[in-house]
Structure formats: C-alpha cells, structure tokens
Amino acid sequence: VLVLSGFIGPLPELVTGSAGAYGRQVVSHLLAVGGLLGLAFVGLPWLLRTTSLGDSVRALAWRAPWPGSVYRAHVREQWCRTLAAQINAGLPLAESVQTAGAVTADARAAAASEAIVQAVAAGSELAPAVDATGLLAAGDGMMLVSGERSGHLVQSLEGLAAGHGDQRDRGLRAATMTLGTAVSLGVMLYVAAGILGGFQSTNNELQKAFEEIERQTPYLRP
Questions:
Q1: In the structure, what pLDDT confidence band is assigned to residue 120 with cuts at 50, 70 and 90?
Q2: Which of 33, 51, 60, 194 has the most CB atoms within 10 Å of its CB?
Q3: pLDDT at 31
Q4: Integer Cα distance of 94 and 216 in angstroms
Q5: How far is it, in rounded angstroms, from Cα 217 to Cα 169?
Q6: What DSSP state is assigned to residue 126?
Q7: In the prediction, which pLDDT does 5 show?
Q8: In sequence order, which residues have a C-beta less than 8 Å from that of residue 47 and are 6 or more positions away?
Q9: Rounded to the nearest 5 degrees, what angle is found at the Cα of 154, between the Cα atoms of 117 and 125?
C-alpha cells in the first residue's frame, strides 16, 4: 500500500507538470518509504538492543494496558516454555528458573527469576514464589500449584505457555489490523490530497492562461 501510494499520489503531475516531475516525486516517495522501513525493522531493533532505551520501553510495557499486554504475554510464554523444557531435561530447578529469566531478555523477568530462586532455596514451593513476584498473570498460580503437587509441573507450564502464546498472537493480529487500517487511511488521504492539489494546480494554470489571453487581446473583451 505504501509503495503503490507513491505511484498513485503524484499522478496529477502527469497532467499539470511533466513525466520528469512525476518520476522525481515517485522516486522521493520510494526512498522515504525505504528509509521508514529500514528504521522500523533495522534501526529501532538495534537501538532497543544496544541502549538503555530498550530497558525503559520494556519496563513501560509492564505497566501499559495495550500493547503492553502483548509484550507481557510474550515474556510469560517464553518463561514458561523455557522452564518446562529445562525441568523436562532434568536440570536443577534453580538453574532452570534462572535460564528461563535470561531467555526472555527482560530485566523484570530476570529479577523475578532470581527472587524465585531465593524463595525456593529458603523453603518455599515454586507456585507461591512465582505468585509473589507478579511475573505471571493472576490465576496462573493455581495451575502451577496443581501441577507441582500432582507431579505434572512440566505439563502445567506447557499449558500456561500455550495460553500466553495464544494471547500474544491475538494481540499481534489486532495490532496488525489497527496498523493496517491506519496506514490505509493515511495513504487514502495522501492520494486524495494529491488529486485535489492537481486539480487546483490545473485550475490555477488555466486561470492564468485566460488572464494572459485577455491581456494580449483586449479587443475580445465585451
């Protein structure tokens, strides 16, 4: 949609201007779109990975309702799935929890994982230790309790991971639809503005031409 708008928006230039002017506008638009996409998919991820801005954005995502909820679901899905895989492989619980926190690349999840390890080392069960950190959503603790006490902790963690993964995917679909609608409306306004601007420019050129004709041929005036 963004690329096609670069070809459609400047179309009035073919009428009021020239093919060269139209081509220049198309090229400038495509360069702008390329720069925007490069910034969104290369520059911004690099900035979030290598600067403190990423930590600030992730911390804000834990407090924001939406799209913060999508990010929280993603972190929880990664944490639960990694912890289930580590425990299923026979690794110690403390090491498994720390690994799960590190895999998320989230400072809050990593800090919560360390707090869980310390609580378990002090004699707490896993579910209450996780609940105390607020890392997982309300209600997840009950599933952990049942899994831990029944000997099916891995299955409980995998179920939580699947639930949070579904929530993340639904949020991403909603975000994609919202962004697509906003981009489409923006492109429609851009194209409409270009067409109206072309009509206005044509009208101005015709008005100037008629005024020049009247100036040079005064005998035609009534």
A1: very high
A2: 194
A3: 92
A4: 93
A5: 71
A6: H
A7: 77
A8: 53, 54
A9: 35
- The pTM assigned to this predicted structure is 0.76
Count of CB atoms within 10 A of residue 112's CB? Answer: 24
Q: Which residues contact 36 (CB under 8 A, 6 or more apart)?
A: 2
Cβ atoms within 10 A of the Cβ of 189, count? Answer: 11
Contacts 24+ apart (CB under 8 A), 89-95: 93/120, 93/126, 94/120, 94/121
pLDDT digits (tens, 9 = 90+) for 166-176: 999 999 999 88
C-alpha 84/C-alpha 40 separation (Å) is 33
**Predicted pLDDT at 82:** 97
Cα 130 to Cα 66, 109, 141, distances in angstroms: 23, 11, 7
Give dist(CA 222, CA 203) in Å, integer: 23
CA–CA distance, 12 with 10 (Å, rounded to integer): 6
The C-alpha angle 51, 109, 145, rounded to 5 degrees, equals 170
Mean pLDDT, all residues of the chain: 87
Cα–Cα dist 7/114, whole Å: 55
Q: CA angle, 69 as apex, 64 and 72 as ends, to 5°?
A: 105
**Which among 127, 116, 124 has a CA at the least distance from the CA of 94?**
116
